[in-house]
Structure formats: C-alpha cells, structure tokens
UniProtKB/TrEMBL annotation:
Keywords: 2Fe-2S, Disulfide bond, Iron, Iron-sulfur, Membrane, Metal-binding, Transmembrane, Transmembrane helix. This is Ubiquinol-cytochrome c reductase iron-sulfur subunit. The chain crosses the membrane at residues 12-34. The keyword Repeat does not apply. The lineage of its organism: Bacteria, Bacillati, Bacillota, Bacilli, Bacillales. SUPFAM superfamilies: ISP domain (SSF50022). The keyword Iron-sulfur applies.
Length: 170
C-alpha cells in the first residue's frame, strides 16, 4: 500500500469525528430514557417476596394480630404499605395467617370483638362474622372465607407473602 492510500482526507476526518461525537451524544440522551422506561419492568415485582412478621414462639392457639409493612412499588413511587394478619396455631399445630380484610366490602375484622358472638372474627361495618378458621358464617353479609396468607417458617420466624382467596364460600 502506498502512503497516499492511508491518508485521510479532511472530509473523511470530519465525517468520522462528527459520527463519533453524534453517536456519543445520542447514547447519552437515549440511555437514560430507555432506563426510565424499562426500570419498572426489569425491577423485581414488589410484594412477591415474603416478609418476617412474627416469632413462632409468640404464636398461640388464640388468634393474635400482627402488624407489619411491605415494600410497595407503584410505577416509580416506592413506599412501605402497612399490613396486618391474624395468626394462630390450629388443632394440628399448623400456623394459620388470615387476612383481616372482610370479604363483604373490605372493612377490618377483629377477633372476639362482639360479646354476643364469642370466639369468632367480627366485622363492625355490617355485622359480618367468620369462624376461627376464617370460614364465613352463613346468614351474615360476607360470601367467602377470609383470605389466607402464603407462609413460611425459617429459623423460628414466620414469614408471610400474598393473601390468597380460598374459595369454598358458604
Ligand atoms: S364490610 Fe364486613 S360485613 Fe360488610
């Protein structure tokens, strides 16, 4: 090859330089926009992982309310959402964690809160009632049992995930 073939003309030099600088600037603009658009999709879905809620030693056969928080991501807004669960051991010794959300219109149910209906979950809004295992009592407004949290026990700690409907309405 001759020396002449290796020489870059002024026009070629400008073309290469402007293409490189233009590409660099375009990447600087496009990359943040792409990340902004894709971040919520790529981020692990919040609320899917289980959260430590209680020590197993604190759980008895009497339903007890435990309050906790889960990380909530709504678009680009992150927050700690307060949650509650009614937790107890059933006759077999299994730990049951019930959602406190009434299946009628979403009020919060309480355990043993109505002296006329002891040992039941009671909803103060319209008098909804549930058995200890969360089954709705026929003749009261709720038409489905209380949801049950996905649960896991690890190193003496109870972890709860999402509350799942059980179906089997009375
Ligand atoms: S919201 Fe609970 S009975 Fe209506």
């Amino acid at each position: 090859m001759s020396e002449k073939e290796h020489r870059v003309s002024r026009r070629q030099f400008l073309n290469y330089t402007l293409t490189g600088v233009g590409g660099f600037m375009a990447a600087g603009i496009i990359m943040p926009m792409a990340r902004f658009a894709l971040d919520p999709i790529l981020e692990k879905e919040a609320g899917t992982e289980k959260v430590a809620v209680a020590q197993v030693k604190d759980i008895t056969t009497e339903p007890k309310r435990f309050d906790y928080k889960v990380k909530q991501v709504d678009g680009w807004h992150k927050s700690d959402e307060p949650k509650s669960a009614w937790v107890f051991k059933n006759e077999s010794g299994d730990i049951i964690a019930l959602s406190p959300i009434c299946k009628h219109l979403g009020c919060t149910v309480n355990w043993n809160a109505n002296k006329d209906h002891p040992n039941q979950f009671y909803c103060p809004c319209h008098g909804g009632r549930y058995e200890k295992d969360g089954t709705n009592i026929p003749g009261t407004p709720p038409l489905a049992p209380l949801d049950v949290y996905e649960s896991q026990i690890k190193d003496g700690t109870l972890y709860l995930g999402k509350a799942k409907p059980r179906g089997g309405a009375k």
